[in-house]
């Protein structure tokens, strides 16, 4: 251990704010980058799943019923 | 613009040599530019205006201007070349001439070399010619002005060559102008450093031959490599369609 | 040989391999980085010149080293994109550029904060700081160009050209900035060139560099997986992966 006490470790002979600011920003940035990457990957997986489900729903609904119906309308000619 | 002001590129037959094709492209670009003189004047006006801003914005004192003058002129020249780059391929892209150029049997990078040289004749060279007047206005001494003109004479073609890559990459994109500056300015830094550094060395009375030779090396490097990169970028941008 | 090459080019194959290696990369990276940092912060001896502020080195040097090597890796991938049109190479460039940007920013930030107690100022136009700043601009340009082009294939190839132009320029930029620096100010402090660094200092430094390297590998895998999923979302293997979790 290079320091006598925990408070000396935090103070770092007056250089504490600089050292801890650096480490703080480093960790915040790295954690944000890592968490953001994982989250966006998972979001893509989720959106793919939703896409497949709606596709499946559509094909299930669409197949038994005809896609469009026509009814004859009589328009009086005169 | 109407069709009369823009002579179409004469489709060169494959029997015509590459040199003749380059000559044709060069002559055509000059002709087009001289039919639209405003496009020629705008970068020059911009150059003068940017230089004017510094005495007004920072300090009109002779000592400051003498010290910073070369830097101011170089930065202003760099910015006005950057401004003019948008025209390098844009009009030809819009009216389809560029696609014809890509389809020519002659190697594309040679044609781009010719186009870039025309671009330099139309923007870089006038800037160099204007520099002595502005140099006097920022109180540079005669020797510094001469060296400054020399560095700009060697440096502005480098700016045009590197810029051609950026112009080719951003062709046909939205907000191409800003993007072009973002891509190109970092690559301009060495030219700027050596351009102003040479003038600073000359002001201290040091010999500048070595610096000028180094800038010449930049020019050779840019002239040989940049047209290849620009040709590749142009093909990509055109296939983007 | 060619079979391996073709396999390497296949996004599906990479996806599976990445999934297998990622836990190890993450665990190893975190372990090494933490070990290096804790050792460096608490146990490494104080520097006789700079006092405790030198402890920033244990994150500054890894970030700066990675920032530069990521650009070199991107340039290698760019060559592969242009020559062999391998899909994975441009997935790599696209996935990794923002990571490089963040690492460059971290190197600059920690350098600036380190400069305050050492040089008495946040920023000096030192050759290294300036060329790192230019590297930051290069990363920014790559990301901006990639975002600006809608078509995936053209974006990949345009970005590859830009990265290669940048990598040709990096030595020129570095050299010119160093020359400019000596022209403008006589030699200042050299940050890392101590006569000799005791083992208690360089071993933790090495550990944290390796740790960050592995974490970068993990990050690249995660981001490449995401990009691959977007590009291949219409294929059958993505569908089975999304619904069953198996590749």
TrEMBL record, chain A:
Q: Where is the composition biased (Polar residues)?
A: 62-78
What subcellular locations does the record give? Cell inner membrane
Q: Where does the UniProt annotation place the signal sequence?
A: none
> GO cellular component terms?
plasma membrane
Give the UniProt family note.
Answer: Belongs to the CcmD/CycX/HelD family.
Keywords (A to Z) from UniProt: Cell inner membrane, Cell membrane, Cytochrome c-type biogenesis, Membrane, Transmembrane, Transmembrane helix, Transport
Q: How does it sit in the membrane?
A: Single-pass membrane protein
Protein name according to UniProt: Heme exporter protein D
Q: Which residues cross the membrane?
A: 18-36
UniProtKB/TrEMBL annotation, chain B:
A single BP term in Gene Ontology: cytochrome complex assembly
Residue ranges of the TM segments: 40-58, 70-89, 109-133, 145-171, 178-203, 209-234
Which GO terms of the molecular function aspect are on file?
heme transmembrane transporter activity
Q: Name a single GO cellular component.
A: plasma membrane
InterPro entries with a match to the protein in the record? Cyt_c_biogenesis_CcmB, Cyt_c_CcmB_bac
Annotated membrane topology is:
Multi-pass membrane protein
What keywords were assigned to this record? Answer: Cell inner membrane, Cell membrane, Cytochrome c-type biogenesis, Membrane, Transmembrane, Transmembrane helix, Transport
Give start-end ranges for the coiled-coil region(s).
none
- The primary site where this protein sits is membrane
Entries under Pfam families matching the protein: CcmB
Q: What compartments host this protein?
A: Cell inner membrane
The answer on whether this UniProt entry bears the keyword Membrane reads: yes
Top-level division of the source organism's lineage: Bacteria
The region annotated as signal peptide is: none
Family membership? Belongs to the CcmB/CycW/HelB family.
The job of this chain, per UniProt, is described as: Required for the export of heme to the periplasm for the biogenesis of c-type cytochromes.
Question: Under which name does UniProt file this protein?
Answer: Heme exporter protein B
- Record the organism: Marinobacter adhaerens
TrEMBL record, chain C:
* Main localization of the protein described in the UniProt heading: membrane
Name listed for the protein in its UniProt record: Heme exporter protein C
Subcellular locations according to the entry: Cell inner membrane; Membrane
Q: Which GO terms describe its biological process?
A: cytochrome complex assembly
Taxonomy, top ranks, is: Bacteria, Pseudomonadati, Pseudomonadota, Gammaproteobacteria, Pseudomonadales
Keyword Cell inner membrane in annotation:
yes
Membrane topology, from the record: Multi-pass membrane protein
Sample GO molecular function, one term: heme binding
Which Pfam families does UniProt cross-reference here?
Cytochrom_C_asm (PF01578)
Alphabetically sorted, this entry's keywords are: Cell inner membrane, Cell membrane, Cytochrome c-type biogenesis, Membrane, Transmembrane, Transmembrane helix, Transport
Tell me the PANTHER family matching this sequence: CYTOCHROME B_B6 PROTEIN-RELATED (PTHR30071:SF1), HEME EXPORTER PROTEIN C (PTHR30071)
Which sequence ranges are marked TM in the entry?
Answer: 21-44, 56-84, 91-115, 127-146, 158-177, 201-221
Q: Which GO terms describe its cellular component?
A: plasma membrane
Record flagged with keyword Membrane: yes
According to the entry, every stretch annotated as the Cytochrome c assembly protein domain falls at 14-184
> Family per UniProt?
Belongs to the CcmC/CycZ/HelC family.
Functional note: Required for the export of heme to the periplasm for the biogenesis of c-type cytochromes.
């Amino acid at each position: 251990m290079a320091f006598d006490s925990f408070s000396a470790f935090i103070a770092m002979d007056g250089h504490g704010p600089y050292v801890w600011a650096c480490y703080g920003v480093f960790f915040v940035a790295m954690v944000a980058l890592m968490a953001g990457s994982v989250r966006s990957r998972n979001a893509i997986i989720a959106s793919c799943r939703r896409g497949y489900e709606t596709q499946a729903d559509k094909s299930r609904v669409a197949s038994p019923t005809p896609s469009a119906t026509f009814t004859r309308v009589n328009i009086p000619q005169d | 613009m109407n069709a009369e002001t823009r002579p179409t590129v004469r489709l060169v037959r494959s029997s015509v040599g590459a040199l003749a094709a380059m000559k044709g492209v060069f002559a055509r670009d000059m002709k087009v530019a001289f039919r639209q003189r405003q496009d020629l004047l705008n970068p020059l006006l911009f150059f003068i205006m940017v230089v004017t801003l510094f005495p007004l914005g920072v300090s009109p004192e002779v000592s400051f201007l003498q010290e910073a003058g070369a830097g101011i002129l170089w930065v202003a020249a760099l910015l006005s070349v950057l401004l003019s780059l948008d025209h390098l391929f844009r009009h030809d892209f819009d009216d389809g001439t560029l696609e014809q150029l890509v389809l020519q049997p002659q190697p594309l990078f040679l044609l781009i070399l010719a186009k870039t040289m025309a671009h330099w004749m139309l923007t870089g060279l006038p800037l160099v010619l204007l520099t002595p007047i502005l140099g006097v206005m920022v109180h540079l001494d005669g020797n510094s002005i001469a060296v400054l003109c020399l560095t700009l004479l060697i440096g502005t073609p480098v700016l045009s060559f590197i810029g051609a890559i950026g112009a080719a990459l951003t062709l046909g994109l939205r907000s191409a102008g800003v993007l072009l500056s973002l891509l190109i300015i970092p690559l301009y830094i060495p030219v700027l450093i050596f351009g102003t550094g040479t003038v600073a060395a000359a002001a201290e009375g040091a010999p500048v031959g070595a610096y000028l030779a180094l800038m010449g090396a930049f020019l050779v490097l840019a002239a040989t490599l940049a047209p290849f990169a620009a040709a590749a970028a142009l093909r990509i941008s055109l296939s983007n369609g | 040989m060619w079979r391996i090459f073709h396999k390497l080019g296949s996004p599906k194959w990479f996806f599976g391999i990445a999934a297998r290696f990622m836990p190890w990369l993450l665990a190893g990276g975190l372990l090494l980085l933490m070990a290096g940092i804790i050792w460096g912060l608490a146990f490494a001896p104080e520097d006789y010149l700079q006092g405790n502020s030198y402890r920033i080195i244990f994150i500054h040097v890894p970030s700066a080293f990675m920032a530069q090597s990521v650009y070199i890796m991107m340039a290698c991938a760019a060559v592969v994109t242009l020559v062999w049109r391998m899909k994975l190479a441009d997935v790599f460039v696209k996935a990794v550029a923002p990571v490089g940007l963040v690492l460059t920013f971290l190197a600059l930030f920690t350098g600036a904060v380190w400069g305050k107690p050492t040089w008495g100022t946040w920023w000096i136009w030192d050759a290294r700081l300036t060329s790192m700043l230019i590297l930051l601009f290069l990363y920014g340009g790559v990301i901006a160009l990639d975002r600006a082009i809608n078509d995936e294939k053209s974006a990949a190839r345009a970005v590859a050209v830009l990265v290669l132009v940048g990598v040709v320029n990096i030595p020129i930029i570095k050299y010119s900035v160093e020359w400019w620096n000596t022209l403008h100010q006589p030699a200042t402090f050299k940050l890392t060139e101590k006569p000799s660094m005791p083992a208690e200092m360089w071993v933790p430094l090495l550990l944290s560099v390796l740790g960050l390297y592995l974490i970068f590998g993990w990050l690249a895998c995660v981001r490449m997986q995401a990009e691959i999923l977007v590009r291949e979302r219409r294929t059958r293997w993505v569908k089975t992966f999304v619904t069953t979790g198996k590749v």
